[in-house]
Amino acid sequence: MAFAASIDWTFLELLFDQHGKIIAGALAFLVAIVSLFVAIYRYRHTNSIERILGRGAQQVRKDQEFLRKGKAALRQAAEALEQQKEKLLERERKLDNVRIGFVGKEHELWCLHPARKPKEYDDRIWHQRRAPIVTIANLKGGVGKTTLTANLAAYFNKIGKRVLLIDVDYQGSLSNMMLSADGVEQVPNGINSLITPGANADAFAHTAHKFTTILKSSAIVAARYELASLENRLMVEYLLQEDEDDGRYRLANILLSEQVGKTFDIALIDAPPRLTAGTINAFCASTHLLVPTVYDLLSAEAVGTFLAGAKVLQASLNPRIDLLGVVGMLTSQQHQLAVREENAKRTAVGQVAQTWSSTHHFFTRHIPRKAAIAAAAGESVAYHCDAIVSGWFDELGDEMCSRLGWQSPPQPNDTKHNGTGSRAARQSPSQREMIH
Question: pLDDT band for position 95 (50/70/90)?
């Protein structure tokens, strides 16, 4: 438009005379139209470029946002990869611990990780001594652990103590013996419920079988073969540190609770000849350790080996546990030991003094071999079937009471032993020396 106005059209008037103005106006109008179209074109072209540039800028912003999100995703992926790497390394370290644990000694395996004790554990187990928890254990098999546990339970029940028996041996020999004597055919799988994750005092009421025929006012937490697979799983969980609580203290947390502790006067735990998860739970729950042994050279040396490991467990897991003593089992005579047994006992005494403490106790009353004990195994308790056997365990039980700080109850001659005769039925020396 400005271009059309700037042109001097007068020359056209001179050239075309009277038509010059018309032609000049037409040309000016045409030029104005062209200029208008050019201006419109330029305007639209400029807007088009701006739109293109705007769309380009918008796409750039989108690309930048996409790139930012991509970088964030890469960082998250890198962090996740690093975490996964740490987890794999931690898993590998745990597996190394498992390998180390299985290569070393059994007691070292159970001390591999620091103890995570229940709340106020040391105080609770110290106060529990008023109602002692005694684990009867030895890593040597065939030394009469179950026989000792069952007959001591009969003795303590007879003198008016509420006895809690706990079987942590997956073979369940104590469970079969005691429940059969009580007329129970189906053995409950009680101990499993007390050492699984999440076990608490409420589970005890559902797992402890109260005797109705024998040992009235007493009870047993039984075991079956299913315990073996559970113990394997618990051991792996402990080694890999996959247990939220410390799986070594589950039984302790229950037995040391006020709810359960008030239900018994003494607890006797029958342990297998292995440091299984059940054995370790028994050790961590106990105030005392009682070790039965046969007085032969091999068994005497095994006592030292066992107590050396138990001393390590004591330092790491249960500093409050005491050695109640060592009991001679399956001896050849009722009163004096045979020469070879005396020699083996001296070896055992030296082993215990070296591995545990110079202040130790070997029970005066040893338990000889007797057909009545073997005959009762699996079906009843010899203490209830044979007056001589009950007399032996009365003497041993009285000695244990003294060790526990209990006053031994009076034993009148006319006191009956479940219809099998009086304590005086130990009779004459010749009869007492009869070992069937």
Answer: low
Q: Specify the pLDDT at position 46.
A: 77
The full set of domain ranges for the chain reads 1-103, 123-432
| pTM, entire model | 0.76
Residue range 339-365: average pLDDT? Answer: 93
DSSP 10-59: HHHHHHHGGGHHHHHHHHHHHHHHHHHHHHHHHHHHHHHHHHHHHHHHHH
Q: Is 329 exposed, middle or buried (0-12, 13-18, 19+ CB in 10 A)?
A: buried
- 57 pLDDT band, cuts 50/70/90, is confident
CA dist 93 and 246 (Å) reads 19
CA-angle at 404, arms to 403 and 408, nearest 5°: 80
CATH number at 123-432: 3.40.50.300
Question: What residue type is assigned to position 342 of the chain?
Answer: E
Helices (H), 196-265: 201-207, 226-239, 250-255, 258-261
Rounded Cα distance, 292 and 144, in Å:
7
Kindly tell me the sign of the dihedral angle through the C-alpha atoms of 385, 147, 359, 127: negative
Retrieve residue 203's tokens: 């589970």
Check whether 220 has a pLDDT greater than 50.
yes
The rounded distance, in Å, linking the Cα atoms of 331 and 334 is 7
pLDDT tens digits, residue range 238-275? 988 888 899 999 999 999 999 999 999 999 999 999 99
131: region left, alpha or beta (phi > 0 left; psi from -120 to 50 alpha): beta
| In contact, 344 and 299? CB cutoff 8 Å | yes
What confidence tier does 434 reach under pLDDT thresholds 50, 70, 90?
very low
Residue 380's CB: how many other CB atoms inside 10 A?
18
